[in-house]
Amino acid sequence: MRHNLQVILAAALLSGISAIAQSSVPEISFDSTADPLKFPTNIHLGEVAGVATNSRGDIFVYTRTGHPTISIGTARPLAHGGSRLFQFDKTGKFVREIGQDSYGFLVAQQVRIDSQDNIWVVDQMSSMVIKFDPNGQVQLLLGRKSESERLPAPPQAATGGPAGRGGRGGALPGAGQQSDVFQRPTDVAWDAAGNIYVADGYGNSRIAKFDKNGKFVKSWGSRGSENGQFNIAHGIAVDAQGNVYVADSGNKRIQVFDGDGKFKTQILNVGAPAAICITPGPRQYIYSSNSNPPENIDADGEIYKMELSGKVVGKFGKAGKLPKEFGTVNAISCRSESELMVGEIGNWRVQKLTLHSN
Amino acid sequence: MNRWWAPCLIIPVLLFGGSAFAQATKAKAQNVPEIPYESVPNFLKFPPGLYLGEAMGVATNSKGHIFVYTRSANTRLFEFDQNGKYVREIGEGNYGFEFAHSVRVDSEDNIWAVDEGTNMVLKFNPAGRIVMVLGHRPDAVVGVIAQSPAPNVPAEKYILGRPTDVAWDAQGNIFVSDGYINHRVVKYDKNGRFLKQIGSEKPGSEPNQFNTPHGIAVDAQGNVYVSDRANHRMQVFDNNLGPKAIYDNIGDSWTVCISPGPHQYLFTSNSNPNGNPPGSWDISGEIYKMELDGTILGRFGHASKEFGGFQVVHMMDCRNPNEIIVAEIESWRVQKLILKPQAAKVSASVK
């Protein structure tokens, strides 16, 4: 994340033009409930990597609750634990924990709910995408956790990726692999046919497509700034027509592809998109966060609302620690156009936002 | 939780730092009146199965409840009532608890924990819920690199490097001593926005520089008192972090507290160093009671492993200046001391 954001910062310094363009963007007024979730006394949110809602309005939070434990006294460093998945009802009442002690829960990255209310978790360190059914049972797995960790982590230059980990094959590839071996994946989305798209991510620079049964179809992309290349594909969303929107954060753009990975267009001037969602319904909108890096809350942080064409409707919020301010937003849930849930890395919280039509 | 690499990183730091700190410092102040005291027997009462590890932080709230931040198998924060009866655990298993360093309670009874394992300062409301965090825990996937003891260059406004302590002025501005990796004091406003710092990522021994700023307290006028431990002194700043005074006759200032009320007193501990090298008990281990202007009023305590003695005092609470609560690293213990200052020999107080 930090390396990612340093790249973003550098890019921000280079693009004074977009800053000028943004100054004319209308401000969307909004209110926030900064503590919408009620917890048992012994459960605390850590960094909120993912937040999502299902069709009943239940809220799911995937949070980093500790660093993974590395077993001592073993021949190889083996990683356990570090993140938890919680479910709340629409009033914010705690319902349950899902996936306790899961083999794949190390460093939370994202949670998404599909149209059948299945719960999908993306874990950055186990490099797995885990599908739970609405009852919380594991239904489908993409990727495989490394059997052991390489510690200390190989330096960035040696891996081709930002501070990555050794996978089964050793050094990280900079470009995509035609398989479901992920390298620090970031997000997951689906089209109407149930095809699965995984943003992969920090270590790889590609989008991987699977059919609804998890069979690998293809992947596209490599590290770079050309069309169809990525510099940290940090989020992904699919519209009703099956177009794929990728938050290409290091390149400060959203790239749009068709379902086969053919580049269609790009959306600029919305900062460095780190979290993205698309509203349902006949008229769809995109929300995208220009998230601030954890080391600076004095710039950026705003969230943009766009048409699917990329036309910016407005923006709201800024970086900070108060309610209505944002600390490194990593997830936006926008099942409703006017009521958003945002998950913050920096402020260890979920905010429920009510947007007002100006 | 990173049990595998924690020993690899933290132990070398302690050994390295330990060798630098292993020498006790004899305070220049001599002929200081001894303040008699008694330690309250059986002060904190633990339920079966609950133990203190190294007692790093101790603080009281307005009701006299006692908060102890301790390194046990996991770092934990416990609350006891004013009689020492166990009340509850706070922040169990949260993302900010890894290696306890300090706990303080502000004027609204919010509980602040400073953790040098996660580089975080956590604000709990009186109900025990986290309402604000300062700093950023290194991401697990880069933690092994980011946690190295190399200096954080340059010091970032919102990233802390093994912070040590926290204090507030009457306006709610937040002062963080930071710490073992950085060597600075950072002032944030009450909403956590960076305002200013003094010192830097580099240690130094000149005025306005620090070498392990290890404790911090603010008086009612907003002046800031910093335990500049490895420089064997306390530095005093005004509210805007401008220099005011240096007190260098009190040995190694490990930790500092200031009592409330119209007449405030300043306490600092010349704690005996970890490792207990030969002779260290003879010249360190005592706590000084001072006026805010640095006038030493008296001293109490001595290095010892026995009840009533001190074994590396890491933190003090002085909400009542005649009832000092001390947390000790190497005796895994919290003691409540009843001072009898009127019985102190009133021979010349020492400036």
Question: Explain this structure to me?
Answer:
The complex is a heterodimer of chains A (358) and B (351). Helices cover 7% and strands 38% of the residues of chain A. Chain A is mostly beta strands and 358 residues long. In chain A, a hairpin with an 8-residue loop joins strand 4 and strand 5 (79-80). Mean pLDDT of chain A is 89; it is low at 1-22 and 156-175. Chain B has 351 residues and is mainly β. The radius of gyration of chain B is 19 Å and the shape is globular. Classes of the chains: A mainly beta (358), B mainly beta (351). Chains A and B meet through strand 4 of A and strand 9 and helix 2 of B.
Features:
heterodimer, A: 358 residues, mainly beta, four-stranded antiparallel beta sheet, 3 helices, 28 strands, globular, disordered N terminus, B: 351 residues
Q: Which ranges of chain A are low-confidence, i.e. pLDDT below 50, for 5 or more consecutive residues?
A: 1-22, 156-175
**Main sheet summary of chain B:** 4 strands, antiparallel
Tally the helices of chain A.
3
Q: How many helix segments of chain B?
A: 3
Class by alpha and beta content of chain B: mainly beta
Q: How many strand elements of chain B?
A: 24
Q: Largest chain interface and its two residue counts?
A: A-B, 48 and 39 residues
Percentage of residues in helical conformation of chain B? under 10%
Q: Helicity range of the residues of chain A?
A: under 10%
Strand content of chain B: 35-45%
Give the overall shape of chain A, derived from the CA principal axes.
globular
Strand order of the largest sheet of chain B: 1-24-23-22
Which oligomerization state do the chains in this entry correspond to?
heterodimer
Give the averaged pLDDT of chain A, no decimals.
Answer: 89
What's the mean pLDDT score of chain B?
A: 90
Shape of chain B from CA axes? globular
Catalogue the unreliable spans of chain B.
Answer: 1-21, 143-147
Rg of chain B computed from alpha carbons, rounded to a whole number of angstroms: 19 Å
Q: What pattern of helices and strands is seen along the backbone of chain B?
A: HEEEEEEEEEHEEEEEEEEEEHEEEEE
